[in-house]
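Sanity check record (used in CI):
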Amino acid sequence: MIAPTELVLLPRPRHLDVTGDGPPTTTEAVEHQATDLEPQGFELHISDTTINLRYRDDAGLRYGRATLAQLRAQFPDRLPALSIKDWPDFATRGYMLDVSRGRVPTRDTLERIVGLLELLRVNHFQLYTEHTFAYTAHETVWRDASPMTPDDIRWLDERCTEAGIELAANQNCFGHFEHWLKHDAYRDRAELAEGFELMGRHRPATTLAPTQDNADFALDLVRELVPNFSSRRVNIGCDETWELGRGVSKAAADAKGKGRVYLEHLHRLVNPLIADGLDVQFWGDIIANHPELATELPQGATAVAWWYEAPWDPEEQERLLWEVGDRFLDAGVDLSKKLGGFAGEAAPFLESSYPLWVAPGTGTWRSLLGRLRTAYGNMLDTVNVGLSGGVEGVLITDWGDGGHPQPPSVTFPPLAYGAALSWCRDANHDLNVPAVLDHFVFPGTNIGAALEALGHLNDRTGQIAFNSSPLQLALEPNAHHVGVGDPDPKALAGVVDDIDALIATVNSGSGAFGDHEIVQNELTAAARQARHGAWRLLRQAGAPAPDTAAMRADLAETTELHRRAWLSRARPGGMETWMTTLTALAKTYDS
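Expected output for Glycoside hydrolase, family 20, catalytic core:
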């Protein structure tokens, strides 16, 4: 008789008992609907001669059949006799992909992602949009961005529906409007048209002024976008309104407070959409900084609280706050209240009983290869808070800050872990992520194991970075490095050696999955860039590293690898955002 630990199931079921040897694998299952089970739940009972599947609803039937299919694939002759009882911790388990920071996926890439979401029992999907939907009257904004079209959305919606996934609209409606406000036709909509200072850097205008005219403008965008989806749910963003209270709304903010000005505009946006019959979501970061306003939020909407760092070690917290805490305070963010974990972000909504989803992050942005210690810790912390608060859903967020250079496959380990946690924390908190990836996602390879190792390299540079990896920041000549510490030459030499070895691992063998060559190429390009970053840190520390000529040649070759890998996964629009960074880096070797 096999041991339960010998079964490879994703996600792991919450209850599993193996009782002996079962029937031939080809035995037909008898299916029964059962109202005594939990929503989306199922029971799979395999005896020595029979297979019985009890399920609560369509989702339970889908997940029960998927579990049986995983067993059939592992046991081609005879199944084990066993009993599985399973249902989710969270009714909604979502994934949000940023398609506005450069990388707009091809249809083949979206197909790959939807297949992974289906495997992971993720039942909700959002594409985060700022300027990358082809709005009818706004070609000036999206012309060079290779945007998603209405036909793309309808195609994706149909594919998601087939996979049991709700595809929902997502259009930021308040902050993050820099791609619009840089154009003359939209500049007068800005809160502060000339831009603003944030943490020591000048930034272009990003925030719409909180006026009724701007609310109507944003509502028109949402009303054009939503009909392309079968879902009536929409996320309108409204996060990080950095300039609010500094320009058009300064007088109002001085008179009644910036938080209340924000709240009033949120009502202008949310209430009409609720009247349209939509289920509206908004990011919770601004209200988290003004918890006294939580009881006045629009009724009928849902807040999505987000935070993307794992709870920091107290000593590392102290170092970061000592070095850069004042810069965050100047930006209106008190890191001392955030580095301890997710609980503070959710507290205003839980205390006021306001509908809430919680949003951890994949930790892949500004990293090239991921930050897995941070991502795994953040996800477990967030799910713990969500479970204790009885929240409605989890939305795993996958951002593309800095030009979205990290390839899609870098996201697969944290996405797999976060989705499994969202299904059942107790059964999956110690999930062997590399093993399940190499079994289900990258069969016939050790790519899952290589991804796991690559995703921990950022912790070995000698530096402590916030919301980023030193390996990527080393490639950005004008990077706003939020971290402390000096490069560690000995550790970095080990990082370089490990990257070389892991590139060889990624490129060994031939995997039994369709995009094997694409995955090899994109991981090689990302790892080569990270190695270049490690070399730059070694040079910064005065340690042995390639000379300038060798660095110039390596960067040219690596840049071309990145370009080819990008075009195999994403549309050309937006590629220049990161390529411009690499071009600026190349110029540093000319002097």
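The longest helix spans residues 516-540. If this sentence no longer matches the regenerated tokens, the check is flagged for review.
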